[in-house]
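> example.struct
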């Protein structure tokens, strides 16, 4: 999708307790603008129907006295939510959408894109179900984004968190009405590991309600009314929430218990006054009393235990957060920062001055970036599909040449030279034993760490050449999408593909098309004998190729000056007998003879390896396909990870 086709990007923070919306233009750098519903920027997540059957939402639903049905705090995990809660979400979202249409925030539904938040701890299945619920409630173009990601995006764009800190680790703590989510972002990765818990601030509201009701002189009468008319129950719970929030705005004012919060109360049927009692001593008791929903533990201790569990996990991974981002309206509770300081003394925490709007603003920002990066990615993929294979083919001969030289040197030095010395010194008595040992030594070396390291090292030395050309091919897209090269890592573009997938295609024998062992005829019958013997020892593939070249190369054993050996080999090959060579003949090989032959074999083997991979069209095709695929995956992964860094100007 292109930018000119996008009319609106709307961030929708549908919280368990409150909701807010923002809109943002597609132009990077423009700040999200608050959308007011019923002339309020942030308000209670409430829905109901009045006596005329009209759906009322937000604070208006609280204020109207003729409500026939009424519900608050109904956002739940779709996998465990009741049908009643699901109906409330459907009616609420549909009514919000209608308000957006009426306010002309949505003029062309097909070109308006919604980004709706969800708790970070929700499973993928729950996220999919939630998206379907949004679609059924009229939000056709909708993407679900984990709320901690949105908060992090907002903090990054308002420079509360520097991009350099994102390259390390940032811990996000999102404290909402229904859940508390812990998310840490590691090394720019926008797919953090989430740790979500059903620890919501609404449990505190409920405790205030229960304490107030239990102490009320007309408790029995109120219980009957609450059962018959749940709307009054919801209003009283809402009053508890308001008084809790007012308390945490200035807890020192109520610290000694001689002053109570009196911000909200409810007249139930104009007969009974329900005044939630909140002050410092009462709040301290509530925060430290056992709660059935928390397995008999208190709210404070549960939060502390969860944060300690996060710390243990990070320590296991050897991670120290560079910063802690607190978000969600409930993050204003003063004891939250105290606990963070105690458990993470070396990780400073930050909190937005308006945490209740951070998610909605972050969702809008995320949406803009998401659309830009997806469009960029789609066009980049088209370029890669067209050009990447050609780029790889253009430079692959350089890679194969360098790898072949190193592999040939290693194989000869490790698999031939030591055994020639042993053969000379009478530690190996027969040619058959020599052949077997050379074959085994080379095979072990090729399948070992040293050969793998050589292949990978040469591959890593080669990748910047490809990376530079990829950068050049994609450069025109950067300006078109206003994406920072630094944000995508292009200024120091280092692909990190799964090099073992490429390496295994080149020289490891199991991954290579079999190369038939060839018989060479050189010297006094030596090549034929050795070729036949090697064929009997068996094995196609690179090991067979290398051992064939070493044992029966164009220079041949006769070049070592061991004429009797060549004659003996020629005579014995057809008879398949074990040929003994005298001790004196072995001692005819000097160190210089061995070094010169090793050098010749190394050079020849390098050339032969390059030749085989150049002329074998099927092998080369497979290698090109695999390398192109792995490199393309690496580039796509780099683009996907760029969301949190795009458009940063201070990397």
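> example.seq
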């Amino acid at each position: 999708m292109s930018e000119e086709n996008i009319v609106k990007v709307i961030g929708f923070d549908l919280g368990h307790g409150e909701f807010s919306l923002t809109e943002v233009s597609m132009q990077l750098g423009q700040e999200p603008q608050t959308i007011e519903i019923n002339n309020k920027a942030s308000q209670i997540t409430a829905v109901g129907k009045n006596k005329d059957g009209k759906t009322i939402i937000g604070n208006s639903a609280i204020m109207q006295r003729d409500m026939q049905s009424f519900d608050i705090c109904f956002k739940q995990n779709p996998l465990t939510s009741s049908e009643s809660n699901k109906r409330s979400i459907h009616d609420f979202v549909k009514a919000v959408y209608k308000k957006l249409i009426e306010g002309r925030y949505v003029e062309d539904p097909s070109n308006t894109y919604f980004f709706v938040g969800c708790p970070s701890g929700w499973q993928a299945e729950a996220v999919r179900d939630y998206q379907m619920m949004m679609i059924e409630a009229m939000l056709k173009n909708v993407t679900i984004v984990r709320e901690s990601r949105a908060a992090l995006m907002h903090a990054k764009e308002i420079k509360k968190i520097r991009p350099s800190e994102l390259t390390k680790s940032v811990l996000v703590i999102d404290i909402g009405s229904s859940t508390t989510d812990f998310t840490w972002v590691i090394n720019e990765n926008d797919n953090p590991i989430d740790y979500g818990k059903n620890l919501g601030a609404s449990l505190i509201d409920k405790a205030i309600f229960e304490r107030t009701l239990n102490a009320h002189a007309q408790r029995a009468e109120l219980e009957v009314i609450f059962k018959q008319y749940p709307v009054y129950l919801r209003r009283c719970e809402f009053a508890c929430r308001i008084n809790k929030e007012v308390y945490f705005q200035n807890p020192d004012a109520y610290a000694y218990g001689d002053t109570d919060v009196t911000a909200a109360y409810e007249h139930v049927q104009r007969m009974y006054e329900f005044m939630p009692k909140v002050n410092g001593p009462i709040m301290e008791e509530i925060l430290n009393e056992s709660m059935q929903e928390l397995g008999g533990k208190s709210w404070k201790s549960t939060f502390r235990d969860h944060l300690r569990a996060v710390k243990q996990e990070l320590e296991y991974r050897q991670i120290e957060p560079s910063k802690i981002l607190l978000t969600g309206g409930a993050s204003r509770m003063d004891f939250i920062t105290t606990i963070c300081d105690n458990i993470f003394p070396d990780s400073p925490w930050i909190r937005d001055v308006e945490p209740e709007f951070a998610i909605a603003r972050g969702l809008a920002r995320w949406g803009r970036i998401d659309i830009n990066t997806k469009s960029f990615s789609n066009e980049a993929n088209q370029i890669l599909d067209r050009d990447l294979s050609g780029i790889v083919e253009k430079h692959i001969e350089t890679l194969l040449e360098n790898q072949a030289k190193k592999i040939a040197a290693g194989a000869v030095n490790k698999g031939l030279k030591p055994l020639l010395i042993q053969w000379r010194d009478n530690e190996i008595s027969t040619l058959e034993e020599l052949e077997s040992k050379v074959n085994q030594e080379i095979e072990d070396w090729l399948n070992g760490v040293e050969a793998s390291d050589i292949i990978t090292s040469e591959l890593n030395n080669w990748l910047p050449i490809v990376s530079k050309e990829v950068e050049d091919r994609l450069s025109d897209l950067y300006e078109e999408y206003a994406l920072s090269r630094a944000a995508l890592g292009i200024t120091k573009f280092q692909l990190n593909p799964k090099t073992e997938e490429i390496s295994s295609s080149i020289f490891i024998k199991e991954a290579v098309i079999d190369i038939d062992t060839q018989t060479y005829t050189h010297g006094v019958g030596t090549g034929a004998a050795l070729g036949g013997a090697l064929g009997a020892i068996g094995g196609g593939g690179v090991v067979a190729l290398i051992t064939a070249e070493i044992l029966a190369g164009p220079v041949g054993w006769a070049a070592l000056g061991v004429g009797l050996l060549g004659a003996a080999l020629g005579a014995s090959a057809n008879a398949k007998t074990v040929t003994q060579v005298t001790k004196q003949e072995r001692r005819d090989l000097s160190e210089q003879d061995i070094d010169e032959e090793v050098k010749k074999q190394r050079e020849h083997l390098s050339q032969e390896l390059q030749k085989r991979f150049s002329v074998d069209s099927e092998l080369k095709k497979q290698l090109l396909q695999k390398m192109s695929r792995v490199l393309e995956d690496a580039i796509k992964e780099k683009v996907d990870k760029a969301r949190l860094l795009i458009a940063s100007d201070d990397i």
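> remarks
The radius of gyration is 36 Å.
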